[in-house]
Protein 1
Amino acid sequence: MKSSAGAHRRLAPGIARVCNGPGAGVTTRPAPVSVLGVLAVLALAGAVGCSDPERGTVLRLAHSLEPSHPVHAAMEHLAVQVEERSRGALRIKIYASSQLGSERETIELLQLGAIDLVKTSTSPLEGFVPGMAVFGVPYVFRDAAHYWRVLDGPLGRQLLDLGLGQRLKGLCYYDAGSRSFYTKNKPIRTPADLRGMKIRVQNSRTAIRLIEAMGGAATPIPFGELYTALDQGVVDGAENNPPSLLTSRHYEVCKFYTLDEHSRVPDMVLIGTATWERLTPQQRQWLQEAADSSSRFQRELWGHKTQETLAQLAQAGVQIIEADQRPFQAAVRDLQAAFRGTETGRWMQAILEHP
């Protein structure tokens, strides 16, 4: 099936029981339904984190990206690694393209124990775990090398565990690159160009404050609804990494991409603590080792795909603008200062002081 904005919504809704069927460990794409609808269907299916003596334990992983996205490839790698390490005793079934709901909705389902695993950006996580807002603080990381030194070290591990009190355990990070602005009608060269423009952001208070600090009007919209919002002029632009701009096909509408790289917001693979506690020590080891392997795989893939994607966007007629980042950094200094003395500010300071 061709991947295009909104294409999954044309499929018939419903989720089939997979624990005893041939579909475990593969990606499926039924249409998205409401949280209550997902709960009802999953309850009828009786297939959440289920075990079968013959087929083993199947965990359900939900995310919002298209199957063509390089982060989805990492989740497929995760599923393969889990099955290989466990010799089929533990498997993962992936639900892509927001079919089980938006990122926020799937996090709620994870807390309820209705699904087992979620891949989410850390931006919507801040509504559940306030400390996660640190990832949205603009220019908190000096560069990509600093970013990974933080995430690979003890500080990164502490941040993965920050949601335990909310029944959310982080397994690993995926590289989501740096976020930059893309727009429909005019290029963004300085923060002044954002004045009066409606810019889609994730459901994150930090992201909203960032756009406001630069003079724009922040508009939270679920990612799966963004193509239509851009096409119909509900918003004038958005911000994301290059692969997401390409795989979402937003470049068909937005022909200006400004590489201001205002934030580096990682993706995270979460497991519900209820599911984690049900797993045996051996199953936990298989899953954690597979997650670590998928993180390494994804990071390497991401580097190649980002450069390849920028070339594809340019060939598709997108104007790539190498912005002077200094005016953007100056525009958000007061925002950074406003976090001091808060939980986010404490994490921010730890990152800024990290070598």
Note: Residues 281-315 form the longest helix (35 residues).
Protein 2
Amino acid sequence: MIVSANHHIRVIIIKAQLMLGFLFLFSGCTKNRIETTIIGNTMGTTYLVKLILENDSLDYKNIQQGIDSVLNTVNRHMSTWDPKSEISMFNFSNSILPFVASESLIDIMRSSLDISKKTDGLFDVTVYELMRLWGFGPNPKSGIPTMDEVKSVLQSSGYENIKIENGTLIKKNKNLKLDLNAIAKGYGVDKVFDYVKKQGYNDIFIEIGGEVRCSGKNKRNQKWTIGIENPISKNDIKSNICGILDLEAGAVATSGNYRNFTNLAGDIIGHTLNPKTGFPIITDVLSVTVLAKSCILADSWATALMVMNFGNGYQYVKNNPEIEAIWLLKEKENQNRYFSLSSNIPIRDTIYPIR
């Protein structure tokens, strides 16, 4: 969810309930800089583009058509909800022969496999059938899966069971299927950012379903200000924002296990699954916010770190200097919340202590 305000917070956009990122944007105004906002729909959620100009010369219609064209291309390649998309064709090919893939699909798969290797498989896009088994995604199954069902799905998943070779994707198991939901929005943000940048704009804010990338300054000629959402809690109604980041260049993505869930036989199941065990995670981590140069990195790492406990996640971040992270944690004894940071990240206006 994204929020924009002039010194106070006001909600301008409600994101769909499917994803992995949960951020709020705040911005101010000045007379000498003109802000143009472009809003649309994509990937089962919404997108928001803010461009800052020194004059009112923007060809709004042309820019929006260009943005929509970029995002439509991403969807045609990567949407598991579209039975005619490239990824759907790959998923249901039931073949271990090389699948000739587009440059876009190869590109995102290369990034996915790189993160999988760096996280020892805790980030994994071969989880289509696993997500479906737990009631998520297209054609979800109902009921709590049995141990045998989980083991069966795990036999055909795993990032080691797919490889890239000469512009093709090759399954090692014909039943393997891909689900790019944990990385596609970040990829889409980067693609839109690159498109807008090529049009000559420098003061840019891009958001898709809570995943953000920006550069330059807002219309007050200040850094873009992004708030971290306070996870839903019956006992905590302090604020819907629990901390604020000021960002001039880079990307931010937040993953949490408190919005996306499914009801299976009366049990509420969070959408964050451990791709190695096949089961939903049990953790004291409420959310993880990742800062990186690109949104594809921020998006994928936020998902991976949400699977880990704080101690393990902290070590992974320390070993990967291309990212920084902010954890929102809760104490087991009294459920009190607190932040923990991977480095001296300039987060402000926090409503919970930093430890």
Note: The CA atoms of residues 285 and 310 lie 7 Å apart.
